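Re: [ENG-882] Designed sequences occasionally contain unexpected residues at chain ends

Forwarding the minimal case from QA. Structure tokens:
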């Protein structure tokens, strides 16, 4: 049986040979929508390594799909004051997709250039039609990572290093956090 690699949000089974070692980087895509007035209905954010398929109806099961996050403004379903600003957050782990794509080196010097060139995202309505990123102007996608030391035994927790924001990965992309933007 292949070894398990411990990561902050997922366990990866595969022939990586990494067990009880330091994972140099455990990257995740972070999603933020600050202005719920820009949301007219729920939608999905799909993240891909490489170009997404042309047919939006196939995005949810594309072979290069890294992960998806649904964005629902639940405040519209309650008696909450819609004038009070609310920020919605999401997270999609990226380390599994990077390893499965044949990139066993999770150091920032390998991951940052790879994600800068290959990480793409698309928005999709719940009816599978594409949603223009410009329609959700407050969407910001950025990548964070941190070193993770795997647990030594089953009754321990992994140890996490300092969170690092990699703005250069998403800078210049529609809906991406720019180098001068605040990730919070």
């Amino acid at each position: 049986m292949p070894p398990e690699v411990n990561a902050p949000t997922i366990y990866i089974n595969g022939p990586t040979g990494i067990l009880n070692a330091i994972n140099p980087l455990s990257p995740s895509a972070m999603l933020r929508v600050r202005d719920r007035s820009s949301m007219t209905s729920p939608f999905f954010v799909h993240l891909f390594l490489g170009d997404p398929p042309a047919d939006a109806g196939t995005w949810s099961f594309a072979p290069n799909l890294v992960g998806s996050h649904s964005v629902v403004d639940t405040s519209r379903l309650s008696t909450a004051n819609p004038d009070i600003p609310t920020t919605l957050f999401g997270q999609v782990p990226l380390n599994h997709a990077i390893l499965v794509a044949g990139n066993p080196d999770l150091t920032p010097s390998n991951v940052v250039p790879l994600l800068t060139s290959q990480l793409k995202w698309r928005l999709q309505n719940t009816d599978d039609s594409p949603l223009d990123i410009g329609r959700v102007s407050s969407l910001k996608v950025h990548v964070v990572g941190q070193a993770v030391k795997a647990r030594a035994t089953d009754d321990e927790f992994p140890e996490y290093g300092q969170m690092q924001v990699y703005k250069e990965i998403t800078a210049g992309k529609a809906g991406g956090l720019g180098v001068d933007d605040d990730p919070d």
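QA comment: On inspection the terminal residues look reasonable. The radius of gyration is 17 Å. Proposing we downgrade this to a documentation issue.
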